[in-house]
């Protein structure tokens, strides 16, 4: 038994999680690598080659490093629980006219749950991943903080983690930037790994065609929603579209017709199969209602507190005033400057400096 303890490392086969395992092994932890099979892309009917964390090549890469470094490695199949929860939610949200963020849902409800379950079974005190983030503590509460590499920072997708999860989680890459991580891979003798590319697609939609995925997943969807109306702010019909689930807030390209000026999707009205279009000015919102909230840094927040609110992964964030909605657990956010493209279904994350105060799901824009 290592003096530093046992740590279960989620290994996708990519550079970040692999370097994470190497670092912890070198630091003296007893490392156990685990690769989670979340999705079999062939079953989606897509035409692209399977890539990313679920591909056979990635699994073999993770296993080979474990063999080289001399620690155990296991593969677990969580396709059933992943599919039932994450993918069904992904489909349901688009059908409801919202824009989901499956990575947040997966982290919160699937991956960490699966990791903790296996960590307990293997007597591991800690779990670790290759996320670019840090875990800090204040007054007995654990919370996520932004990583050194702000371009790679992944704190936005970790707002949903529980105190139990954070209390056992390590993010070794938090103090590093991507260039340094690539150099570490070289230093460990893995030159090819150091050059490995990155995947930005949703793992179960590796061809990045979510519209095709929805069509294959929901039988008869295209026929059912085809012929919907484009409407303007005055609710006047200005065109015909192929179906509301195939559009997202802020979309400009791929509308299927020209309007004489740049037009953007400003609202999706699912029950009427309508997509509202307007100029970019109509994308600007001064607030939002946030539901399904989870607080990290504090156990509660007082009304009229000011935080920076981030509404998309690459959003720089906007100073905001937050207050509780009377009679519910929802939070109302008032942006100090109008924010573009606030999309129901996406996450809103509250920051105090680099610290994640908490977050939730955007229920509606204001």
How would you explain this protein's 3D organization?
This protein is an alpha/beta fold and 366 residues long. The protein has 3 domains: 6-130 and 172-194, HUPs (Rossmann fold, 3-Layer(aba) Sandwich), CATH 3.40.50; 225-278, SH3 type barrels (Roll), CATH 2.30.30; 284-365, Elongation Factor Tu (Ef-tu), domain 3 (Beta Barrel). It is built from 9 helices and 17 strands. Strand 2, helix 2 and strand 3 form a beta-alpha-beta unit. Helix 1 crosses helix 6 (178-187) and helix 3 (79-95) runs antiparallel to helix 4 (102-121).
Secondary structure topology:
Layout lengths: L5 E5 L4 H13 L2 E8 L18 H14 L2 E6 L1 H17 L6 H20 L4 E3 L4 E6 L2 E6 L16 H5 L1 E2 L7 H10 L3 H4 L15 H8 L3 H5 L2 E4 L5 E5 L22 E6 L4 E5 L5 E12 L9 E6 L7 E7 L6 E10 L6 E6 L2 E11 L1
Parallel strand pairs: 1-2, 1-4, 2-3, 4-7, 8-11
Antiparallel strand pairs: 5-6, 8-9, 10-11, 12-15, 12-17, 13-14, 13-16, 14-15, 16-17
Task: Please outline what is shown here.
This protein is α/β, with parallel strands linked by helices.
Q: Compute the gyration radius: what is it?
A: 22 Å
CA-based shape = globular
The unreliable regions are 46-51
CATH superfamily of the largest domain: HUPs
Strand segment count: 17
- The CATH architecture of the largest domain can be named as 3-Layer(aba) Sandwich
Largest sheet: 6 strands, antiparallel, barrel
CATH fold annotation of the largest domain: Rossmann fold
Biggest sheet, strands in spatial order? Answer: 12-15-14-13-16-17
**Tally of separate domains:** 3
What string, H for helix and E for strand, traces the elements in order?
A: EHEHEHHEEEHEHHHHEEEEEEEEEE
CATH class of the largest domain: Alpha Beta
Gap between N and C termini, in Å? 55 Å
Strand fraction equals 25-35%
Note the total helix count: 9
Helix percent band: 25-40%
Which structural class best describes the helix and strand composition?
Answer: alpha/beta
Mean pLDDT: 90
